[in-house]
Amino acid sequence: MPDIKHFDPDNALERAERLFWQHGAAKASIQAVTVATGLNRSSLYTTFGGKRELYMAALRRYVRHRSWPAQRRLAEDGRGLPAIRDFFTALIAARCSGEHAGWGCMIVNAHVDGAHTDPEIRALLDEHHRQLRDALHAALETAVEQGQLSPGLATEATAEALVLLAYGVNVRSRTGAAADSLLDTVTATLGLLDGACP
């Protein structure tokens, strides 16, 4: 007779995502995971395979629900530099206000907290990095087509630099940096691309 689950695995995964996002995998004990998800250890292991597998599933959920939609909007926006500016403005707003203020980015937290040493997690982090870089590169290429960038600007290297700027925003916001200060830094950085940026 098949095992009948008396809980919603998607709901449990969402709760686990929130726990790991806010506190990191290393600091989230199995006891904290069971409390957050409402699962006992047996259900946790049967459904997800353990804490490490649950963390991996939570990372994938975060990327699928939070990272990819923002990256897709940026890549498909069609406005060039204003799209990049709006991407960073929304990022700063999400990191510095509302329900998840001070949590940073779950993906960047994984880089910082040491989870990147796991090969499967490393591969997910690298793929996230590539997709963010590609989205920023697409927006920069649009900016080139619209004459918004300084002549001769290397768009691939600039996209990589902007990814690192996004990582910096995430790390600094997690340590309490003010939104205005982060926005000033982003504005100054984008101004280097074209002093006449609208």
UniProtKB/TrEMBL annotation:
Q: Which PROSITE patterns match?
A: HTH_TETR_2 (PS50977)
- Pfam families in UniProt: TetR_C_13 (PF16925), TetR_N (PF00440)
Q: Which residues form a coiled coil?
A: none
Residues in the DNA-binding region are 29-48
Q: Which InterPro entries match?
A: Homeodomain-like_sf, HTH_TetR, Tet_transcr_reg_TetR-rel_C_sf, TetR_C
- UniProtKB keywords: DNA-binding, Transcription, Transcription regulation
The UniProt record lists the keyword Hydrolase: no
- What GO terms are given for molecular function? DNA binding
HTH tetR-type domain sequence ranges: 6-66
Carries keyword Signal?
Answer: no
Q: Record's SUPFAM superfamilies?
A: Homeodomain-like, Tetracyclin repressor-like, C-terminal domain
Protein name in the entry: TetR family transcriptional regulator
Species of origin: Streptomyces yokosukanensis
The organism's lineage is: Bacteria, Bacillati, Actinomycetota, Actinomycetes, Kitasatosporales
